[in-house]
Amino acid sequence: RATMKSLRFISAEALVSNAELARKSLGSVAHNLFPLLFKASYLLEQGEVIHSLVENWPFVDFNVGKLLGTTVDYQEDLSHRTCSLCLESCLTGLRDYVLNRSSPYLKRLKVVDLTGIKDVEVQVCDCKKTMGRWARTQLLSKLCLELLVYLQQRQSDPGISGISIDVRIDLFVTERNYELVTQALLKKCSCPLKICCVAFRSDNLALQKFFYVIKLVDASLLRKLEVVHNVRLEMEHLEMLFSSTHFPLLRSLTLPARTFNVGRFTATDEGMLANIGEKMGEMTQLAELSISFSVLTGRIQKLLSPLKTPLKMLDVSNCSLNHADMAYLANSFHANHLEALDLSGHNIPDLYPSIFFKLLSHSSPVLKSLTLEDCNIQDTHVNMLIVSLSPCQKLEEFRFLGNPLSSQALKHLFTFLCELPMLKNVEFPVPKDCYPIGVTYPIDDASLCRFDHQKYESVAEELNLILLQANREDVKTSTPLFGSYDAAVQETKNELGAYLINSFKETLEKFTSSLNETS
């Protein structure tokens, strides 16, 4: 359905659609119309006009998320359009704002905020070319270094020397852009554009380089820290990080797989875990924690009990939690505040069904997202699951891929899901009866796609018909076989793939070498 536009917005579109005319007219346009023209230009992908608007921006702040968000003149939110043409025009326009030789007193800009840009799977912009978080990090760093080269060439330019603009951004650093980003951060003091990192993501980076770049980032400003996949951060490194760096505003923390492994704990490790818990307790803003694929059997309480504020998001998928861990979660003050919970990889029906029910009943007034992938939920458990989910009337997302459920059980479950008023998104498994007889769960990657696709499509149609008949066509359903979409992984998949191939090659060479030595 088309979003209504005001006459002002329609007029703005008419002006910016003629790029040459719009650029010539900017000098006589009232300043309060710049935000309107910016959104209209972004919608029409008028890169030249966007560049000119930013180059001549008349205000103290330039907040991309707010400018593209819902406005009186045009309510559609465009902040999820990571259009490469538009975003590159924004950033190069910002560089040229600094270089523009207009009188210094006209330059009021002090803060640029790029953090409101949302990376999504489906792009609706005409160019279809996106600029993700990694590419934005790369381009801003490059532009900062270009400005420094210009300043060195023209040292006595008074129009530039007095300019200082904080650029708030979510940085994404990997091996491939590490050198560029560290150079830009090292020379931040000399550059008119000051990179202010609000959220930091690191992947495919040597541990030494991670520690170096995190020192260059102002940790006192960090609200989100994601250390993922190919950063080999283990518990002793995490303790070192927390001991040497303070994160007073940190709200969200994601740690890579195998950060913790209690299977090989010593007395020293127990003390280390306690220290990490205490350091996390000092992070008074911490509300989101993801520690998936660590082995934390019997240690959740030691890690989480020092926290002084309740968690709103907790991902403990594949953490080998036992009954004591689940009991702690169900009875902790976190349970009453959890808006998002991921318990994937735990055999919930067999190990702790009553504790799971208690946990959900405590979190039900606020719970919006629940993920129960590979939890061995079978047909005989569906009624128990329905009873557990019934109080969760605010649930918006429910993901339960990888569970051995039949078509009939899924239909029964979907009939209930229609009753959850806020539900928007459901990720359901391929029915067990679509796979060959004798398939074992969890299904390995090689067998994951070997199912009767025609039968699956037929079942999926029946499930959507259940929603349709209940007037719930607002609920989106899908079966992403290899997990939900991750914009950051998608953007850097080629680099990560190359890293994995090299790692495999090195392992193979070491193995071959050791075989040769023994023969």
TrEMBL record:
Keyword annotations from UniProtKB, A to Z: Leucine-rich repeat, Repeat
Keyword tRNA processing (UniProt): no
KW Repeat (keyword) present: yes
Top-level taxon in the UniProt lineage: Eukaryota
A cellular component annotation (GO) from this entry: cytoplasm
Similarity comment: family membership: Belongs to the PRAME family. LRRC14 subfamily.
Name of the protein described by the UniProt record: Leucine-rich repeat-containing protein 14B
Naturally occurring in which organism (per UniProt): Rostratula benghalensis (greater painted-snipe)
